[in-house]
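Researcher: I'm preparing a figure for a lab meeting and need a structural model of a single chain. I don't have an experimental structure, so a prediction will have to do for now. The sequence is pasted below. Please return the structure as tokens so I can convert it later.
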Amino acid sequence: MGAAPQALLLSTIATDPNDWHIGRFSLLGDMIRGAGQELDPSFSLNISDYPTSNAERQALQADLASGRYSQVWLIAPDMDNGPDAGFFRALETAVKAGTDLVIARDHTDLGCCLLELKDCLGDVGQTQTFQRTWTDLPKDREYADPACAAIVTPCVVTGQNGGVQICRQRAEHPLLNFASMIPGHLVIPAHPHEGVIRKVTASQTVLLSSFSITSGREQTTAIVDEADGRGMVLHHSTFHHFADYNLDVAAGAPDFVLDPPSTQIADSPALLNDIKAYVRSVVHYAQNN
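Model: Understood. Here is the structure written out token by token.
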């Protein structure tokens, strides 16, 4: 008998009730756990913010490096307050040994701790773009959120929190092998300032794209990287595709969120069918590989 499959849903910040801490992704946790248990009733999911005590950090890093988790869902809302260097070395060891990694951050320099990744994950900091490292960042016609002028580039407006966007399926891939609401497309939660991701290596495949509602520019939404000799790395343009607030605005948001929300999903809950099917597909793909 093999060991029971385990997954990790982790944020890159310490618990902060007024931030995008992991408690604001409880619906995602439910989806991951349910999908994993469909394949194996013994599947378990560990949900945590990044620990504050040294002992807990050491334990987390040891678990990662030992290959305890077959998949890691990393929510990265940090801004120069992310994990210590030991975490990144442990995560690199895990992915090199076959752990699949799902990454979601957001606009500007949120999630900048990912720039610490090296070795087999050295491409992450180029795929996920940051203001501080994108030297030729365009600033002429994009990256505008009239309702929240404090949000600066790089970001793309795809809609309101609580509303949806229609993404185009850009590749034939098992991750997208499910019946969607609109053939060839996915309807997923929108966000007023998604991050920007870019394909930078031949091992990467663009899965989904959407469009900026301020410029009309095509926006890459999801990229899968399946380089030889390590686990899959799945990039998303924002963690707001998965946040409780974006799936159900009644869940609330930190007090720095100023954008007026939409009632689109609240009025038509079936609009969440595609994001639920997508999460299920990712969990199954990772668990079967």
